[in-house]
Structures are given as structure tokens and as C-alpha cells.
Amino acid sequence: MDFFYIGVMSGSSLDGIDIALLKQDDRSRLVATHYIPMPEDLHAELLGLCSSGADEFARAAIAEQKWCKLVAQGVQTLLKEQNKVVADIRAIGSHGQTIRHE
Q1: Helices 56-81 and 40-48 sit at what angle, rounded to 10 degrees?
Q2: Is residue 102 included in any domain, yes or no?
Q3: Domains held by the chain: number
Q4: Of 17, 28, 30, 71, which residue is most buried, by most CB within 10 angstroms?
């Protein structure tokens, strides 16, 4: 049986989000990728969270919602491009967006 997985990665450069579709059968292989450039407003919000500031928990929650919606749109685009539906995907892995290391 074939299993499909999605991996989501974004780095500290905040330039964009990479989404990969992988197939697992007797081996693992990359099926397709999709790249989403980081919108300027979200880039600025995430960059602003890299250091302490006023209302950072509220600002982080707002940025998280925007980031998650962007990822969801990217996943939907990748699935459509590959003629897949959500039910075809066994799991999605994402560590989220790193804001700062302390």
C-alpha cells in the first residue's frame, strides 16, 4: 500500500515556506514540492517577534494564524497540482515557524 505524507519547512531567513509531498511504499521518495514566498506583511510581523516587545503574545497569535492559513493554502495548492485529496495524506509534519532561540 502507498502512503503519502506532507512535510512543511520554513527557516529563520523568513523568505518563504517549502512544502513537500512524499510517497512511502517499499521506499521513500519525493513526489513534488511547492514554495510559498513569505508575504511582506507576515515577514515583518515575524521579524518583529524575533526580539521582546509589547504585546508579543497577542502579536505572535495573530502571526501564527496568518502563517497557518498560508500553509493550509499551500498544502491545498500542492494537493490540487498532484491530483490528491486530503484523504490521501496519512500525516503532515510541521515544526512551525521558529521565532527565536533562547
Answers
A1: 140
A2: no
A3: 1
A4: 17
